[in-house]
Amino acid sequence: MKILVLHGPNLNLLGAREPGIYGRTSLAEIDAQLAAWARQRGISLSCAQSNHEGSLVDTVQAAAAQQTHGILINAGAYTHTSIALRDALLATALPFVEVHLSNTHGRESFRHRSLLADRAVGVVCGFGGLSYRLGLEGLVAALER
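RESULT FIELD:
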């Protein structure tokens, strides 16, 4: 099984960026934890991050061409704004799980709306770095069905 973990804008700043909201775990630490979990299960995992919408779209499209089975995505602010990213996910028809470190529903009202959630296999938010692990476990379970 081959899975892409895709991180959106500003997630490269994890660990230093608003630790009261996003925690002190860095993106590299999250990726390493996910990689270790995936290795134990014989899952091929690749991780990518970009602050640029077009780059994220390109990465989604490339994942389909590389026969990726599913995507775990934290689109960051693009969750609420990017029709292009939504269209790329739908065009590839790859199953995906949306994750967020913070509880987006307990924050500003503009964060309550996701352009991805209605087409996602599932959404996990509010558990800090654990959101990624829970999302990955859910995606793997869905793909194994």
